[in-house]
Amino acid sequence: MDRRNFLRTSAIGAVMAVASPISISAAGHATRKTTRSGRLNMSFMPYELKLNHSFNLARSQRTTTPDVQLQIEYDGLIGYGEASMPPYLGESVESVMTFLNSLDMTQFADPFRIDEIHDYMDSVAPENRAAKAAVDIALHDLTGKIMGQPWYKIWGLKPSKTPDTSFTVSYDSNPDEQKAKIEEALPFNIIKVKMGLDHDKELVDAIRRQSQSPVCVDANQGWTDKEKALEMCHWLNERGCLFVEQPMPKEMLEETAWLRERSPLPIIADEFVRDTADVRRAVQAYDGINIKLMKCGGMHEAHRMAVFARALGMKVMLGCMTETSCAVTAAAQLSPMADWADLDGNLLISNDRFDGMKIVDGKVTIPDRPGIGVKLITPTV
Q: What Cα–Cα distance (Å) separates residue 52 from each residue in 7, 199, 348, 351, 354?
C-alpha cells in the first residue's frame, strides 16, 4: 500500500463535520459555507505582521513583515496556511497573491494528493516558495484533521524529543531599546544573536552582562573576510556560543569550507540551502542546515530535507521567519527531528491570529491537536 492510500485508509472513521466553517476571501471578507463540495476551495488575504521591536540584520532593517493568510476548505473542514515574505526571499504580497490567484484548486477532489498538487504548482510557475508553502501547510492541516491526528504522530515522531528554542536579539542603537530586547530574551535557555553589523562584539558583551545562557549566532552572510570570520568564531567559542549560522555570503562556498575546517564551532547553512538539492552541496562546506518552510516550500519538502541531512551525517536546525503561530506550529511538527530550533517568529509579533505551539521552560511544546495543531483566534482583520 503506498503512503497516500495508507493515509487515506487511516482516515476512515475520523470525524469530519464542522458546522458553518468560516471562509475568508482574498479581499478579507468572512463568509460562512454550509455545503460540502467534495473539492478544494482556497481563499486568502494579505496580513501585515507587526514586530514588537525593530529587526536589524546585516543587510536590512524592518518593523513589519508582509504576510498572506490562506485557508483551504474541503467537505466542511478548513486547513490553514501562511506565506511570510522577509525581503531576502524575493517575494511580495503582490507576487504571492498573483501566484495563488493563478491556481485552480477546485480541480482536486482529494487533499491527500499533496505530491500531485506540488507538481501542479511547479507547472504553473517556478519558485514562489513562500506562496507554495502556504498551500502546503494548509493541505497538511486539512489532511491531519481528516485523520484526526497531528503531523508529528503521522510522521512517527516523539513530542518529548523537541529541542529548546532560541530567542532572537538584534542590535539596536537605542540603549533602552537594546536593553528591552535582551531582557525579553532572558527567560529562554538559548539566545540567538543577529550579527553581521559593526557592533557584533558589543552586542554579545551586553548579553553576557545579563545572562550566561548559551548563545548561537546568525551572521546573515555579513562576514566577507574569512580570516576575520575565523577570529570571530574563536572569540564566540570563548563566550559560550553553540554554532554560527551563515557566517559568509552564500556564494562564497570555498571560503566557507575553509572556515569550517578551522572553526571551533559548527557552521550552519541558512540562505545557502533552500531545498533537498541544496543539502547535497551544503555538505561540502557546512556542518548542518537550517530548514525553513518559507524557503523550501512547506512541510512536505522540509521533512525530506531533514531525513536527507541526517543520512549525510549533518546537523539539523529548524527555523522560521517572523510568522504567526500558523506557520511556526507547522514547523514545530518536525522539531523532534532537530538538534536545534529557532521557532520564535510568532513571539516577535504583536498581532498573532492563532493559538498554537508553546514554549514551556524554553522548550518547544507541540499541541496535541489534529493537523498542524492551531486554533484560529482572530477570524477577521
A: 40, 21, 6, 9, 17
